[in-house]
Design a protein that fits this description.
The complex is a heterodimer of chains A (711) and B (385). Chain A has 711 residues and is α+β, with helices and mostly antiparallel strands. Chain A is built from 23 helices and 23 strands. Chain B is mainly alpha-helical and 385 residues long. In chain B, a hairpin with a 2-residue loop joins strand 2 and strand 3. The chains are: A alpha+beta (711), B mainly alpha (385). Chains A and B meet through helix 1 and helix 2 of A and helix 2, helix 7, helix 10, helix 11 and helix 12 of B.
Amino acid sequence: MTPTIGKWVRLRIVIVGLGLLLASVWITGRFFQLQILEGPDLYEEATGEYKKFCPILPVRGLILDRRGTELAVSTRVASVVAHPQQLKNAGRWSRELAPVLGMKQAELKELLTRARPFVWVKRHLTPEREEAFRTWKAEVEKKDKINPSDPRREIDAIYLLPEAKRIYPQRTLAGSILGFCDIDGKGLEGLECQFDETLYGKPKQSWKMIDARGHIVSTGEKAWDPEVMGNNLVLTIDRTIQHIAEKELAKGVEKWRAAGGLALVMQPQTGEILAMAQVPVMDPNFYTKYSEEARHNRNITHALEPGSTYKVFIVASALDAQAVKSTDKFHCENGKMAVGKEVIHDAHPYGSMTVEQIITKSSNIGAYKISTKVRPAQMDVYLKNFGFGQRSGIIFPGESSGVMRALRHARTLIDRATVAFGQGIAVSPLQLLMALSAMGNDGVVMEPLLVKEIVSPQGQKIKEIQPRPLRRVLSQQTAQQMLAIMETVTQKGGTATQAAVEGFTVAGKTGTAQKLVGRAYSHSKFNALFIGMVPADKPVLAISVIIDEPKGAIYGGVVAAPIFKEIAAQSLRVLGYYPEKEPKKENESVLAKKDAKGKKEQKTDKPAQAAKNGKEKENAPVLGGIIPVGVAAANAQEVNFTPPKLPALQGPMNVMPDLRGYTIRQVLDLLHRCGLHCRFEGSGLAVGQDPPPGTAINPGETCVVRFQGNS
Amino acid sequence: MQLRTEYAAGTVHYDHILQTTAFTLAGLGLVVVFSASNVMAQSQYGDAYYFVTRQFIYAILGVGALWLGRRINYHNYKRYVYHILILCLIGLLLVFVPGVGARVRSAARWVRLGPLTVQPSEFAKLGVVLFLAYSLARKQEKMKYFAIGFLPHMLVAGLFIGLIGKEPDFGTAITLGVIVITMLFVGGTRLTHILLALTGGGALAGLMVMKDPKKFARFLSFIDPWKHGQDVGYQLKQSLLAIGSGGLTGLGPGHSRTKLFYLPDAHTDFILSIFAEEVGFLGIILVMALFLILVSRGLWISLRAPDSFGSYLALGLTLVIALPAAINMGVVSGLLPTKGLSLPFLSYGGSCLLANMLAVGILLNISSQIKRADKEPLRAVAGGQ
């Protein structure tokens, strides 16, 4: 055993000890400085580093029809984005990602090597591709181990970014009214463009904890934050009537091998547009596939010669100005009449006819003669009051004001003459129907409406657009008189007997307008028109049908009138109006059924039976101003299936909703809002679910919903 | 032998305070390793407990090492000093042998032993300390001669330091250098020799730092971490942000934000930053106090050891724990330039924990042989002085 250490050694050990003590004091002092003196500042600085102000992208509001059917919705989709400057192996990533995203490798590599801090690699992935990308990324993350001294990995610079994508579940239906959005959710056409600000939503920013790889750490977020959602737009359009109009119009266009067609359905009393159809159609989901022409809503943005339909406004003005009486007779010159240097013709030679007959038979010469009875300046005022030559004020982008020449400034007689039968001027289909509706509304022009309400995402009405009378153009008396005159058009001997709707009276007017090709009228290309209202004595619907370049027949009464009839007949049923005289057979069977039912219920429920009878009465045509909406909605279910409306958008739910009866899309949307994952079985309407309704749920859970066909 | 019977009777008195402190630090280490590593472990291995499970196994082995060190009479080491030294040398050489040595991030510091990897440099420190203690105790008064007291020690230590530096593991190399110089200073080497060694070593270190742009950049980043916060100073900047965020009481256990991949090496070299962030300045004071108790007990044993070999050995073992701790704390708080050096007991790492526990075990054995006041007369006779 070595001897113990000496005192000098002891001293030096003590010196070492003191040195270490000094070091510990120094280090403690340093920690005191960092944590106590500079602590709050460093904390703030660290917060700035770890928490990022993350934008929450807005979610565009819904566009609904007047009954709440979704015409435009937003769903969440994912896009692949990348920060090229953080990628060193762009070659590898493009090689691996190309099959995953279904892109060309060269194209990917070009994107990933751009000298940009941020690029969109592929936007709006399909669910399959999104899943494929997630799988791929998980595999890469497993393969590429983290380097502990630099945990920021290259793969983290390529990731999914959630976005809202606009979807038009009804596809081509009302496509030209809705318009469309670009990929960033900015409205480009139609109502999407006009109400872009309303629908856009409020982009929000929130502080979020971000880890060093750029992933958001805190996940207290709702899947669908109502705060960033835009307002919903409720249209005056009725999805069912829109469907009818589009279907019948397409049928007609096909039948007559026409270049296209336009149809409008309006409530004369309110100016609300129930349907606005055009052929060819446009599917806003794929708007890029369509020509500029097809994207326009031509009922509003295009103007055309109204042809003979215009005569009713000339005659109405003359009657209202008391320049003529409906019984006044005019000689129609047997089909040929010289006006100045030109000659005007009738389709058939007529002799002396009353004002009413001139409309019934649609005589150009007669109409001209009537127009000469009114001072040009006065006629100008009437036509202007009808709304021609000026924008109707409908809230829609790109409205055409049409072309009107003031009669009082007409240079030649023929210029004035042709106006009487709708040549040399141009009106938009909307103007035409709006003017016609005035006659069905006791002479008052209503503002045409496409949008009924603006509703907040929480379901509160922000703005309700009420029907607004613009001005009176005719006296009530003249309006009634015109209805009676126009009724003769669809009666025996009129030009549009095919427009007559069984069980209803129809007031209308045909038109056949030569199309202008270059500067001259074409002899082979025509527009066939029919505008009309039903029922004739107190109209509830005003409908215009225009067929562009029909082949085989050109007359409005032959081509357009039958389409009018179909649209009118079906729409009336949708709105709850039934013919005054039901076909006997149907009536009997209904009665028999009712009897059988009545007998069964007789003993138990007499008051109910009485109530039912009362309701039956209500179902008879209600010819007073406003359409019974409740009845209309009830009957709508019979004609065309409309899924039940979703509950109003509220905050996230914490119990399982009852999903039965909803469509897949609605279920998806609803569960998305609850933050639930969902597995679907079958298709059609929801018939079963697990967990059952009312069960407490937590976001992130998975549920199963079974569907069955609804037909 | 008398000692063995005392052990058997359970009457051997070793330093309980030292042992408790070591266990407390190791236990605290488990908690901190879990807190600092779980996010990374979850993301990389899909198992948040990946590191803490392993550290727990090392801790169990560490308790075994401590028991072993306590059990073996430290005088027995004298016979095997050179064997141990050569074993350490072989270990240090093995890291460079392809197939046996394991490279991580281009640093060859590990040797594969079946499923385990061992870091020989941790044990080499103990070997060098043992050699120095043995040599210093033998040479005593001759320490002041250059050829006897300075040169042989510097050559042996230089070989080890050089090999460790070659791995490269500059942190451990410099620590070992400081341990050697301190021990030589205590042993009685002339101050002029020590100054010579310091200037030589300093110049060498300076040269290597200047030559290697990466190290030079590290050095620069230490001078102004905020300016180089995006590149070379990133780690230090994150460390300072973490420590500062802690404030007096910390953000709460498990609430570190920096561990979300911001701070590299969060569960190894920079574990104290996470600890400071989660439990604040009070936590730092606790850790500092534990280390101070440990070191003061070690030095106390060194002063009271029954012979000079025991004294030098106790001093060296104390320094093996104290110096890395002090340097690591200095590094994470930005007082010293950044170098890879783990914090004894707290950082994740098996070899380090094992070596430190073994060191504490040996210290305990020395403490058990201290002549205590009540037994002094008896022992004095027995010792035959």
